[in-house]
């Protein structure tokens, strides 16, 4: 019988013990997304629907890379606090109630970011929703947009920017209390940066929102469904606002 470690098992061991390999995994997840977005850029143009499709593809590939890292380590999604097993009614109710509290906290943080930037840069003009005119009076497109944004933002962003980043950055710092706190801050900054298209004010707002979600993730003992649901409520409000703003 051949007990010689395979390439996959050696990589898994390195991901569990080698800080440089762990850092490489963090970088790889975002390089995958950047490669897809930049590679598609010449063909996308100003077509908002196609751009959303490219974003969805990039997000799926990032999730696949995160999953691969878990698989190589011998872990599963439960390591990030994401369980797909059917829960009892008490657990479901508790998760939903906690998600509402987290939603309120994240919205409050988003507003705090807006107030801070308004005092620095002045009150911004009304948002321009013209790029989302394809939603106007189109209920099927609205439903598709809601499903897509839930996959990309609600689920995808919470897995990547809360679960993956916070856990992996904390592991780089030996998983002590300081490491977890620093991981929340760093993940919030990265979350802010990837929303650069929203402008400096939007980046600050999403940074504050990410900070609230990150703190909440630790507070609820890393039950990721709580922050996924909270994020979903915010996404639904945003998409509906776009839908009615263009009507």
Explain this structure to me?
The protein is 77% helix and 0% strand. It has eight helices and no strands. α4 runs antiparallel to α7, α5 packs antiparallel against α6 and α6 packs antiparallel against α7.
Order of helices and strands: HHHHHHHH
Which strand-content bin applies to the residues?
Answer: under 5%
In one word, what is the shape?
A: globular
**How far from one another are the termini?**
69 Å
- Radius of gyration (Å): 19 Å
Low-confidence stretches: none
Report the biggest beta sheet as strand number plus sense, adding barrel if it closes. Answer: none
- What structural class do helix, strand and pairing data support? mainly alpha
In DSSP terms (H or I, runs of 4 or more residues), the helix count works out at 8
Q: Care to count the β-strands?
A: 0
Mean pLDDT: 88
Helix content bin = over 70%
- The overall number of domains is 2
Task: Briefly characterize the structure.
The protein is an all-alpha fold and 247 residues long. 77% of the residues lie in helices and 0% in strands.
């Amino acid at each position: 019988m051949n007990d010689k470690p395979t390439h996959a098992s050696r990589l898994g061991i390195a991901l569990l013990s080698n800080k440089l390999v762990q850092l490489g995994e963090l970088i790889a997840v975002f390089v995958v997304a950047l490669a897809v977005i930049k590679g598609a850029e010449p063909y996308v143009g100003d077509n908002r629907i196609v751009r959303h499709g490219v974003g969805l593809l990039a997000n799926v590939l990032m999730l696949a890379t995160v999953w691969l890292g878990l698989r190589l380590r011998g872990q599963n999604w439960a390591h990030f606090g994401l369980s797909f097993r059917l829960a009892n009614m008490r657990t479901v109710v508790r998760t939903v109630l906690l998600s509402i509290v987290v939603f309120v906290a994240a919205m409050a943080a988003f507003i705090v970011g807006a107030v801070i930037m308004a005092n620095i840069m002045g009150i911004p003009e009304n948002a321009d929703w013209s790029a989302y005119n394809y939603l106007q009076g189109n209920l099927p497109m609205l439903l598709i947009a809601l499903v897509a944004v839930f996959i990309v933002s609600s689920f995808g962003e919470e897995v990547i920017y809360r679960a993956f980043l916070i856990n992996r950055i904390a592991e780089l710092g030996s998983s002590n209390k300081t490491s977890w706190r620093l991981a929340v801050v760093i993940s919030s900054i990265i979350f802010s940066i990837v929303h650069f298209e929203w402008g400096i004010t939007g980046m600050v707002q999403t940074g504050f929102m990410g900070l609230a979600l990150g703190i909440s993730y630790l507070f609820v003992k890393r039950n990721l469904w709580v922050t996924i649901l909270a994020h979903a409520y915010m996404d639904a409000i945003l998409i509906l606002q776009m839908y009615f703003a263009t009507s």
